[in-house]
């Protein structure tokens, strides 16, 4: 495991290691489509605060622990209108954090369609989702720029690897754990809507920097 400094930032490094500047939307995380819905449903204040408070520029120790203990993650890729979401599994530790905002994972024997890797060759922007379904309610979303590594020596050091995928991570975002079921305990999320439509409030909505800026129609607004 690579120990990384903790801390939060409103800016993240790009694929070349340089900090990514905000786009025309005034955000490095949100585009105009996100902004349109935030404004329509009175969510911009919350979105901006979460970006500033929760989006990180480098992995914190808890991020590294979740990633390197994960037996699987979900990978999203897209190119030329072909959008794909793939399950990637392996022994815990098969995803390795290799830098403050960089990781690698092996590509194992598959079905020869190369849907994910083919998309990466055409468009390196990817999304990764790590979730713990064991009752801890942990979720981590990553965005980054992926590239294929075909160094025979490095590949030979990882049992079963056909090649490696390196990801320069641009967005590290620990996401709200609501709705994640406890599969180990066969228990549904405690935050699912009740028969009367009410829901338990998540902890984050009560934080001092969030509770007073919730959208006007938020069911947990005080």
Automatic annotation (TrEMBL):
Residues 60-158 form the Pyridoxamine 5'-phosphate oxidase N-terminal domain. Signal peptide: none annotated. It comes from the Bacteria. SUPFAM superfamilies: FMN-binding split barrel. InterPro entries: Pyridox_Oxase_N, Split_barrel_FMN-bd. It holds the Pfam family PNPOx_N. Residues 1-25 are annotated as: Disordered. This is Pyridoxamine 5'-phosphate oxidase family protein.
